Amino acid sequence: MRELKRAGLKPVLFLRPLIPGVVDDELEDIVEEARRAGAVGVVAGALRASTLILARMERAGVDTGEIRRRIRGKEGKFLSVNCSDLKRTVRILAEEKGLIFFNSACCACAYTAGVVCMGRCWEKGMCSRCPNRCWEKVEKN
Fold it and tell me: Bridge partners of 79?
């Protein structure tokens, strides 16, 4: 990140997947280290797991109890894991440290490139309200 920042780019920490019960106590250190390294923002994403991934984690010694407790919906190929509290924590930490929190990878990428978010997040209520201000760029065209 330091080298990217020195080169004039806008590095963003992609903090994903958030793994409940594993990263909880490390979030502040991770965000702070990214800030020190030159990150301008953070995007955090929830874990999407399959039964195979969970089994591999367990074989590696990871306690998946908290992950399993947070699984939403039906059993399927991929299981959505509710990480909204962890994402909220990352948002608070990022903002406290002067970083931009992005709701989605699309927003983060659009910001760093200075282009309009292809997901048109502002129309779906998912806009990060970052300095990119995509909706204004669209109005000009």
Answer: 49
